Amino acid sequence: MKRFFLSFLMIAGVYSATMAQSAQYEQVMSKNITELESPSTFTPAGLTEKAALFERIGDAEKTQWQPYYYAAYCNVMNALVTTDRNKVDGLADQAEADITKAEQMSPKNSEISCIKSLIATARLKIDPMNRGQQYGPIAASALEDAKTQNPENPRVYMLIGQSLYFTPEQFGGSKEKAKTLFELALQKFAAFKPAYKLDPTWGEGYTRGLLKSATEGK
Questions:
Q1: Which of 15-25 are b and which e, b meaning 16 or more Cβ less than 10 Å from the residue's Cβ?
Q2: What phi and psi values does residue 195 have, to the nearest 5 degrees?
Q3: Could you read off the pLDDT of 111-127 as tens digits, one per residue?
Q4: N or C terminus: fewer CB in 10 A for the chain?
């Protein structure tokens, strides 16, 4: 009986420590995910800092895909917003390394496929005329994968619409089709519920801005 009681105490202690660690992980992640919505964070310096932080969390946790996902998100957004073309490929490389780690833990994940599409888009934007043939199909294929993996993911329709909106009509773009997709994305956002509270929810405000621009003919 004494041996059983000691074993019970040990198991209870391990369980309590695990729960405390899990709660701390969720608290830190939630705080930093929320801060990604701040304009002060959405700068090259802010995104670089957050990417490094999420990478450290991922290295510490080892079994959670979300930290590496958000690290990739920060790096690819940095690649998309930077005005220094010489930095784009390096940031895209780091985003690709992060999202590969996330995908190893969560394969066939629609959110991960969306980031893979954005990475290809970031590489393409450096030189659309010369890189379009290589990276355009990669970006489009990743979004098709994302749509197959989760047809209810609103970010899929937002990103497809964004591609159509910013692509000239002579190369297959269409502002009218983009507008329809932005409207669909907003319907999906209204119904969307993440499977886990740390899963991605970003993009609704940006979609509203794109729809407004498309509606006003900008």
A1: eeeeeeeeeeb
A2: -65, -30
A3: 999 999 999 999 999 99
A4: N
Those residues whose C-beta lies under 8 Å from the C-beta of residue 48, and which sit 6 or more positions away, are: 74, 78
Element holding 52 (H helix, E strand): helix 44-61
**Lookup: tokens for 14:** 């391990």
In the chain the first and final C-alpha atoms are separated, in Å, by 77
Buried b (16+ CB within 10 A) or exposed e, 66-95: bbbbbbbbbbbbbbbebeeeeebeebbebb
In tens, the pLDDT along 178-193 reads 999 999 999 999 999 9
- Of 103, 110, 215, 195, which is closest to residue 159 (Cα–Cα)? 110
Rounded Cα distance between 209 and 82, Å, is 20
Amino acid identity at 205 = G
Our measurement of the distance from residue 148's CA atom to the centroid of its chain's CA atoms, rounded to an integer in Å, reads 17
